[in-house]
Every structure is written in C-alpha cells, then in structure tokens.
Amino acid sequence: MNISLHWLKDYVNLDGISTEDIVDKLTMAGLEVEDYTDQNKKYSTLVVGKVKNVNKHPNADRLTVCSVFDGKEDLQIVCGAPNVKAGQIVALASVGVFIPKANFKIEKAKIRGVESFGMICAEDELELSDDHSGIMVLNDDLVPGTLLNEALQLNDVLLDIAITPNRPDALSHIGVARDAAAIFNRDLKLPKIDLNESQKEAKDYASIEIEDKINCPRYTAKVVTNLTIKESPEWLKNKLKSIGLRPINNVVDVTNFVAMELGQPLHAFDLDLLAKKKIIIKSTETKKKFTTLDSKERELDKHTLMICDGEKEVAIAGVMGGENSEVAESTKNILIESAYFNPKSIRKTSRKLQLVTDSSYRFERGTDPSNTLYASQRAAQLISEVAGGEVAKDHIDIYPSRIKNKEIIIRFQRIKKILGFDVPKTEVVKIFNRLGINIIKDLSDSLEVVVPTYRPDIEREVDLIEEVARIYGYNKIPAVSKIGITMEKRDDESLFTDEVRNCAVMMGLKEILNNPLISEFLAKITGKPIKISNPQSRDMAYLRTSLTIAALQTVANNINKGEKDLSLFEIGNVFNTTNENLKSFGDISEKRKLLLLLTGKKDERSWNTDEKSYDFYDLKGLVNSFFSKFSLDNLLNDTYNSSEKSIYEYYFSKNFNDDVVAVGGKVSKNALDLFDIEQDVYSFEIDLDKIFEIKTEKRKYTEPLKYPKINRDFAFIFNKSVTYEVVTNFILEQSSGILKEVEIFDIFESKDLGEDSKSMAFSLEYFDYNKTLTDEEVENDFKNLIKKITEKFNAILRGN
Amino acid sequence: MLFEEIDRVKQDFDQDIKEADSDKKLELIRIKYLSRKGLVTQLFGQLKSVPKADKPSVGKKLNSLRQEITAAFNNLKLKYGGDDKVSSAAIDLTLPGSKYKTGSKHLLIQTLDEIKNIFKGMGFSVYEGPELESDFYNFEALNFPPDHPARDMQDTFFVSDDFVLRTHTTPVQIRIMEKLKPPVRGIMPGRVYRNEAISARSFCMFHQVDGIYVDTDVTFAELKGTLVSFAKQFYGTDLKYRFRPSYFPFTEPSAEMDITCYICKGKGCRVCKKTGWLEILGCGMVDPNVFKHVDYDSEKYTGYAFGMGIERIAMLKYGIDDIRMFFENDHRFLKQF
Questions:
Q1: Which CATH architecture has domain A45-146?
Q2: Radius of gyration in angstroms for the set of CA atoms belonging to chain A, rounded to a whole number
Q3: A121 and A46 in contact (C-beta within 8 Å)?
Q4: N or C terminus of chain A with fewer C-beta within 10 Å?
C-alpha cells in the first residue's frame, strides 16, 4: 500500500515526529514500512534551468546542442528530446547527479563528438510519471537555480507499507492514520460531511433491490445530477499521482480518492445508461460474457455476483464496472455505489477471472460494512466540489440485516498467560480507547469490549491480546533467560537419514540437491509420475520418479563446465502414484532414496598414479561398503540384470528376501543421449525407507581372532561361461569349514589360454576361532578343493 | 666394591655421551656399554659373586644403571640416528602428494545441521513429514480457511483438489500434535515448494525449519528468550534484535524477528534494503484454532511456533547472491564447502 505522508497528515497531526520515527513506529506496530522515499532528498540535487538557445548537433539529426542556464553559468548539453526549445524552463541534472529511474549518475560525456555537461529531464526519468514523450517543461515563473524539490513543492514522503491480509482496515490513509494516532497518542480527524443537497430525493432518481442478500449485505447509493465531467483540479490529481494512481476524470478521480482515503471502494454509474433507473444485485444463473470498462470481454461463471440495471448486467460486483455504464465525457448524472460485499464471493470471482483490482483486493479482505454511507456522502460532497452539479437529497441504503459488532471478554490473567508478563490495566484501557475498541463493562479482572466493524480480524480474546501487545510494543515483552528442558526421551526422526549422509560423505562423495520438478517425458521413464496441476513450465510439470533421471541433468551441466569427474550422492524423495486422481494418501507413494553416482575419472593421471576411470566394480564396491557400514551386507543378496525395462545397460539389485531394496548400474546410452552425455555414468538408488525397516538396531562387539590365519592361493583355467560367484560358492561349500574367506585376486584371458577360456586366481584364508590350525589340516582341505574344482568345472590347475 | 664400579661406569658413560655428536660415535658407545660384551653386561655377570644379602640392592642399582644408560642413548639415537642412512636429497619432498577425494555435505545441509544442533541442545526433538501434503494439513488445520486471502501469502503448486506440494514445514506441527499429548517440543526441517518465478532471489523449492513448543505455561516471553538464544548461538553474541508484529494464520499474536544487518552492521545497505535490519524468521503463539484441530485444550495449553528459511540464512552467512546456486550443483561450488 502506497501512503503519502502529506495525505496522512490530513487526518492525524504528526508534527514534531521525524520521518524515521514514523517509519520505525509503524513498522514496530505491524504496519511494516518496506521502503520509503523522501522527495526532498530525492529532488534536491536537481535545479530549475533555462534553455537559452538550441542548435543543431553537427553530427546527428535527432540531437540538439543546448545552452542551459543553471542560475550561475551556462552549461552545454546535448539533448535528444523533440520538444526542447529556447526559452523553456526545465528540470536540470548537472554532472554528478543521480537519476533514480535509470540508475545512473550524470557524467561529463562526449555525445557524437560534442561535449555535454548534464541532462534535461523527462517526467519518467524523475519518476514523476510514465511520460517519456519529451522533456518536462516547467512554469515560466520559476527562477533558474532554484532547487527542484522547492520549485515543484516535491516535499512529500512516500511510504510503501506491506499490509498483512488480516488488516483490511489499514488499506487506506485513514486506516493507517488511525494506527498512527494510537501509536503516537494523537487525535484522529475525520473529514466532516457538509452537503448542500437539492430538494429531489435520491430515491426519486433510482431504485435499488438486493436479490442475493448473502453476498451483498449492504448497498448504499448517492445521486449527483447535472455535473460536468472534466479534468480534476491539481490538488486531486497530485494526491492520486503521489501514490502512483493515474488521474482519469473528476468523477472517477474522486471515487478513487475516497477509496484510498477511507478504504471503501466506490463505483460511479452513468445514471442515464441504467435501464429503468434500477439497480439489482444478483448472482448469475448461467455462464455468460461481459465486457468490463477496460474493454475486455470476460467469461463469467455461474453464481458470479453482478450489479444489474433493469435489463442487463452493468458491473461485476466489487471487481470492475462494465463498459456499458461507464462514466464518460458526456455523463451528466451519476449514481455512486458504496457497498459491502461478502469477501468470499468477491475473492472467488476475482480468482476465477484472474482479475485483481484495487477494489476486489479490499472487498475480499473485508471492508467496513458500517462505513458505506459515510463514504458515499464523502464522495458526493467532493464530486459536487470538483464537477459541480447537485447532490440529490438523502440516499438509498439497503441493509436488510445489520452486521453486528463483536463483543468480547478479555481476561488480564489470560494476557499474562499468553505474553508472559502483566500489561498494566491502565495501559490496556488506553490502547483500546485509542484503537476505537469500546469498553462496555469493567469487571475488574476482565473487560468486556465492543470491536468496531472495520476490524474483522478481531474475533476472539487472543486477537485482543495481540492488539495490546502490538501497540504496547513487542520489544517491551521480556525475553526469558532460562528455559526448562524435559527429561523425557527425545525423538530425532532425521537421525537415520543423517547416518546415511555421513556414510556417503565418508566414502568421499559430494552431496547434491536437485529440483524434483521435471518434465513429463523424463518422469515417465522411471515410474508413474504425479502431475502438477499448475506448473510453471512444461519442464517442471511432474514430480521425479527416480533420483537418477533428475541428477543426469546435473552431470550434463557439470560436464559442459569442464567438471567431468564426479562422485556424487543425493538424498531425496521420489513420487509415484497408483491413481491418476489423487484423493487420499493411499494414492501416493512418496519414498526417500539415496542416489550414489560415479562418472569420469576415479584417479587423475599423476606422477605416481595412472589415470583410471570409474567402472561398474567401483560402483559395486561403493554399494557394498555402504551396506556393510549398516551391517546389512549379510542380510541382502544380489541379483543381476533381473528385469527387462531399465535405464541401465547392465545393473544389479540388492534384495531383502524377494524384495528389491536397491538397484543400479551402468546408465544406458539411450538415457545418456537425452542429456548429451558422452561419458559413462554409474548410478545406484537405495530405498531408504526399506533399509530403515530392515536394519538391525544393535551392533555387537566381536572379539578379534586369537589364532593365526593360513593363506593358500591357486589359479585355474575355466571355461569363460563360469562365473566368479559360482566358483566361490562351490569352494565354500566343498571346504571342511576351516576355510573362511575366498578372494579373487587375478582374472585374465589370453590367446595362449584359448578363446573360450579364462584364468581365475583365488586366495584362500583358513583359520579357526578356537585353535591354531595345523599345516596338515589346511593342506588336506586345499588338495581336496583342487581335486573337486578340477572335476566339477573341468578346470585346469595352473602353475603346478 | 661392585657399587663403586657401577658408579665409575656411570661416570665414564656420562663423559662419553657428552662427546657423542654423530651416529658413528653413538654406535661406539653402544658397543662399549650395551653390547653383549659391553660394560653393563659385564657388571651383570659379576652379580653372581655378590653375597646373597647384598644382591637385592646391587641388583636394583644395576637395573637403574642400565635404564639410565639406555634412555640417554636412545635419546641421542633419535637425534643423530640414521643421518647418513637416508639423505634428504634422495627423495624430492617437494613433489605433490597423492590425491584423495573428500566427501562433503551440501551447504544447505551443513547450515541445517548447525540449526538442528542448537535446538537439540535446547531440548527440542526433530520430526519430519511428507512433501506431498493434503490441503487439510497444509492449510485448513493451520487456520487458512478455503477462499481466504491468507492463502495468497504462499503461491501453491497443486497436484489435485485435495493435495499440494507443501508450502511450508508447518503441517508437520499438526501431524506431531495429532500423535502426541503435550508437552510437545520439536523442530521440523524439510523441503517446501512455492510457485514463484525462478530468479536470483526465489526458487520453486527451498528448505525450512519449523519449530513448536506446547505446554501448560508457554509464553511469548519464552518464545523470545528461546529465539534470541538461537540467534546468538548462530549469529554471534553481540547481536541486536527486534520482534515486530506480523501475521500468520496459525499464530496469534504473530511476529517476525529481525537482527541487525551483519553486512553493514545496521547502517543500511543493499542487502537489508537500507533498513539496517534483516528478517530471519517468523513466529508467534499457536492460534487456538490450530489447537482445536488437534484436540488440545487451548485454555489449559499454550504454545509457540516459529519457522525460518535455510536458503536465506545460508545466503547471508556465506555471501551467496543467487539462490539458484544451491540447486545447480556446480561441482566448483560443491568443492568450496
């Protein structure tokens, strides 16, 4: 909300209070001043100048070289404005002056070879209006050298106040003045109504009927006849301009002025365009089209509250008037509407039409139902002042069921319970008086009060407590220096995720966080995605169904920036649905996953290491380390390439019983092509919700082995189709039990071995938990294994 | 007799060791005293012929001689030993070390951890909730009636009529109060979504920490004390602060907490929009309408709640001027933290 301090001071005397203090105190009472402009400061750097002569620029047709007198000397200025003429009085910015709109400082410059020592300003450059058609020409009687703020009386302070949605009363100058009066303990002065009314009564000119009483509880109208539509006087135009509103004509300007003064939106109808001189307020029964006064045709929904005349719709109630009844130059007689509409109804219409106006903004937050008559009288008075004409006697005011003021009891003990300290009763009484909250009963330990209708936000005792705290000052509430802490067990639901994260960090991975909103195409590759009803763009219209797909974009972006070697992890949620139309949580699957991702070089080329790229086994090792860290390695089994549809060229899964809890591998070329990634990427996703369920809570100490280990190695030539896993399992099965570990330490193929053969070398580790093994025991087992392997796989023992 | 010999050997050794200034000389000393045929060993050999009664005392003296000599020798051995075995010229110590990859938490998570630790220290539990949330939890139970302008305060992504991407972590407050009876004291960190145009200052998602404390005697004064303590622990003890009235549907009274801008120290700069203050969080006393939804008796119980955005805090703390940096995952950014 833009508030002019000059305008504000029409209603409350703030003499002797500095701007800084006003800004600070309003902010500290909940009317947050986000920004403010002190025109005096802003415009005192510019001066009034006189254009002495204007010559053509030697090198540019559209430029002129002017000589401008700044009160002391003549400055040469190159000017591009078409309307510059010798003898004009202008706004002059000389070297060193900051131009707010363009955000630059004037410097001595050479423009097409001619030196220039300043700028003659246009209105938009000074943020006085949007006008950039030419330089601003000032009144002839201004003396060159006068500071611009003095010459144009630009000495207002403009406040930009962020009004919270609960405070519709503060969406006007009088509303803010009311709070200022309470804060600074000054009197609020409301404009007096002094109408010179004609003999004929308003009800003789028009009639009003409310059909939809729920959505229009009150409708008040005044009639003004024989007026003349013309430009508003300077004072009115300046008031509107000061808060950024564009003057239109005297009648419209008055309605806007009163809206910004009192917070009551008004609308003026051309009375002669109202069929049967009738106003009917009702909701549409069917969908229909309607052209608003901005000449746009709008689609109205069923049940849209409309203002109609005897034949047709003439305005969308509370939102915008119609083109068909708009006040125009030819208008002679008007009907001023000042109504109270149901906030919910206006909000629905405004949202449906995606049309937010100053009027709808105020109505949907709640205007003051008690204020419609006063506002219409205020408007009628001002219109008769600026547009002439006669104000018809009395008014039409339909108010079938009066909206009652709320009566609330506030207990002092409750103030203490909420705020933590006692606010003296005298203070509470003073605050209520200043805010217009009437005390009707003083019950010593409590007060019964009546809340004015302009404060729809005050409904309960606690709302009154906030008013007390707000005006008394939040900063006067003490901050306790000790708190009590419960001895009960505390929860930390983020503990497991944190453990997982720490583990990933320990393994040398860097954490990333990706945007879960991705395109339909990508989301559908890895699941049944959930659609955003109102996405920002097609690229962000669905929720991710896997972490890998979204992370590939991160990989691609990094590769483009030359960061090709990445070892990353992400912890995040993925979303799937079982039912397109989400009705209950049962239709949603939201799961927390861990992504491990490797790409590029594992080791860079260096003086003591060879370059090595990440491969499948790096990923597998990483995954296994992760699971062993959580003591899950023995609970899970691996399967390989177990399903057809996958984003992986080859992959493996970790399963608990038959349930897949994690899966990943080498990302397929097709998937990488989508992101123009040309290097191999290995990724793995772990379902953390499932892991959390199966992980064992207790880790126990195992005593380190007391007896020595004995190692034996052997190598065999196998047929190529024999896998490591099959051989290892066979060895463990066949051993007498003293064999505890089998590790493969070499594998190779060569021409010498033959096309279908490969060599695998194993290292065996023997030990017993309870005794020292003898060489004989080991040797027997070892020899037996050699025999069994040779027989079973038709393998050839190497090296012997 | 042997006593005197022991003393003499000790004196000789003390003399010899004083002159030992190289590994070579040390080796001669070792041979003279500590080798198999050295003086100390010889002395031990003579122990046999000592009368039985004197044995313990002589033995003790011998042992301490051996300990002293060994200790003095070892000391110098560390100093001179090996000085001509590995010459520093044989290995180029200036060569770069091998490369090790270090892992790291995302900067936002690091910031969140810091916040979490502070509140855990003040007795708060940590709770989580879903990102895809029902309209009831995200809005209605938090006193945002349907068709109320307060809903405009948070631009919402809808996935159906009844479900939204949560716009704040506040719904977790409802979930926890549904589950537990007072006292309830916890923080709720998590990811939230807003349908705001993506720019340097806003993103379609970000992270929040919400907090709540409900008990029989929770007051605004305690809210202030707790949050001031948090701010001092996080931002430094010399901080100035202010609480300013604001509006949130789920708290009454509501406030926003500002701290002195630590970029300009309160003088006014671009970051604090020339006000000298930085808003760091929203807070207030839990609205009785919220208690109604979770069946808490608002006459008996009072509570406070607060919420803050992690991105904003991290941006200010680390001088990051574009929120998108957090989600671009530029490896050069990740490596910095």
A1: Beta Barrel (2.40)
A2: 41
A3: yes
A4: C
Say yes or no for a CB contact (<8 Å) between B252 and A462: yes
Q: Kindly report the number of other CB atoms within 10 A of residue B34's CB atom.
A: 16
Six-digit token string for A575 = 């979303």
Q: How many degrees, rounded to 5, is the angle at CA A199 between CA A194 and CA A202?
A: 80
Q: For residue A696, what are the CA distances in angstroms to A632, A635, A699, B303?
A: 8, 10, 7, 37
For residue A738, give how far its alpha carbon lies from the nearest alpha carbon of chain B (Å): 38
What is the biggest distance separating any 2 CA atoms in chain A, rounded to whole angstroms?
130
Q: In which residue ranges of chain A is CATH 3.30.70.380 found?
A: 710-797
First-to-last alpha carbon distance for chain A, in angstroms, is: 93
For A232, phi then psi, to 5°, come to -75, 155
Q: Does CATH number 1.20.120.520 belong to domain A2-40+157-184?
A: no
Question: How many distinct structural domains can be found in chain B?
Answer: 2
CB-closest option in A27, A480, A513 to B222: A480
Q: Do A365 and B149 lie within an 8 Å CB cutoff?
A: yes
Q: Residues B72, B150: one domain?
A: no
**Pick from B323, B296, B304, B301: nearest CA to B312:** B323
For chain B, what percentages of helix, strand and coil (3-state, to nearest 5) are there? 40, 20, 40
DSSP conformation letters of A322-369: BGGG---TT---EEEEEEE--HHHHHHHHHHHT---HHHHHHHH---G
The C-alpha atoms of residue A258 and residue A362 are separated, in whole angstroms, by 13
H/E stretch holding B14 reads: helix B2-19
Please give the CATH architecture assigned to the domain spanning A406-470. Answer: 2-Layer Sandwich (3.30)
Lookup result for tokens 């002092």:
A412
Q: Quick check: helix, strand or coil at residue B190?
A: strand
- List pLDDT tens digits, range A368-390: 999 999 999 999 999 999 999 99
| Cβ–Cβ < 8 Å for A304, A311 | no
Q: B334: nearest CA in chain A?
A: A510
User: For strand A510-511 and strand A566-577, is the pairing parallel, antiparallel, or unpaired?
Assistant: parallel
**Taking the CB of residue A569, how many other CB atoms lie within 10 A of it?**
29
Among the listed residues B105, B114, B326, the one whose alpha carbon sits nearest the alpha carbon of residue A505:
B105
Burial of B177 (0-12, 13-18, 19+ CB in 10 A): buried
Q: Are residues B9 and B74 in the same domain?
A: yes
The C-alpha of B293 sits at a distance from chain A's nearest C-alpha, in angstroms, of: 17
**Helix (H) / strand (E) containing B43:** helix B39-46
pLDDT by residue for chain B (337 residues), tens digit each?
778 888 888 888 888 888 888 888 888 888 888 888 888 888 888 888 888 888 888 888 888 888 888 888 888 888 776 655 555 567 888 899 988 889 999 999 999 999 999 999 999 999 999 999 999 999 999 999 888 888 888 899 999 989 999 999 999 999 999 999 999 999 999 999 999 999 988 999 999 999 999 999 999 999 999 999 999 999 888 889 999 999 999 999 999 999 988 778 888 887 787 788 989 999 999 999 999 999 999 999 999 999 999 999 999 888 898 999 999 999 999 999 8
Q: Are A511 and A501 in contact (CB under 8 A)?
A: yes
Supply the DSSP symbol for A229.
-
Q: Which two tokens stand for residue A269?
A: 């109808």
CB interface of A with B, residues 447-486, below 8 Å: 460, 462-463, 465-466, 469-470, 474-475, 477-483, 485-486
Query: If you classify domain A495-694 with CATH, what class do you get?
Result: alpha beta
Q: Is A74 helix (H, G, I), strand (E, B) or coil?
A: strand
The Cβ of residue B44 has, within 10 Å, a number of other Cβ atoms equal to 14
Residue B199 is part of which domain span?
Answer: 107-334
Amino acid at A448: E
